[in-house]
Amino acid sequence: MKKILAILLIPMTLLWSCSDDDGSAQDPQPNMPPESSMAPNFENFEDDGGRMAAVNNWAYAATSVGVYSAILYSNLVVPVTAFRVGLNQNATYNTETELWIWEYDVNVAGKGSYNVRLTADVDGSDVDWTGYISLSGVFEDFVWFEGESNLEATAGSWTLYESPQSPSAWLTVNWTDNESTEVSTSTFTIQKAGDFFGSSISYEANANADYNRGVTIVDTNASNTIDVDWNHPSGEGRVKSEAHFQNTAYHCWDDTLNDTDCPS
Asked: What number of helices (H) and strands (E) belong to the chain?
C-alpha cells in the first residue's frame, strides 16, 4: 500500500515543482520610467517666428531653455523618440534571457525608420534598461541609451550616447517621479566635450504649484545660473539670471508672454 501511495505522489510532486519553478522564472514586469525622465515638456518656449522680437523676459528664458531642448529634440531625437514611443508598447518576457523586451519600429522625421529593442533586466527591486536601435543596412543593435531604475520607476538614471559613428556619452540624466506628491524631477548633464561640458538643466514638474514647471540651468561656460518657472498650459512665468539682468530679482511675463511686474 505504501509503494502504491508513493507512486501516486511522484507525479504530483513533479507538478508542484514545475509550477513553482515556472512561477519564479518570470521576473515581475517593471514600471516604465516616466516620459519626463528623458523628454520633459518645453512646448511653452516654442517660438512662432515673431515672439522673440516682441518680448524680453520670456525670450531670454526661451533661448536658454532652447539650448537644452535642441540637444534632446535635435541632436538626440532618435533615442528620445524611440523611448517616447516605447511608453505605449507592450512587453513580452523571454524566459531564456530572463529579460522583459519591448520591440517595435519608429519613424523619425528626416532621419529614417528604426527598429527598437528595449530590454529590462530585473534583479530584485533594481532594473537595468538597455535601448538597442537598428537602421536597416546601416547599423544594428547600437546601444543608444541605457539606464537604471527601481521596480516602481520612482527614481533612476539614463545615459544617452551621441551616435553609432561617435558612440561616446552625450548626456546623463538623474530623475525622480513621486505619484503621491505629484512631483517629478530630471537633471540633464552634458557629457560631450566642448563649451557646454558639465553644464546642466534641472527640470521639475509640480502639479500643486502655481508655477507648475521649472528649470534651473547651470551654464559652466558662462559661469551663470538661470532659474525659470512657468505655468503649463497658460504660459505665464518668470526668469532670474544675475549675469543677464545684473540683479538677483525675478523678471516676469504674463499669459500673452509680454513683460509684466512680478507678484509681490
From this structure: 5, 14
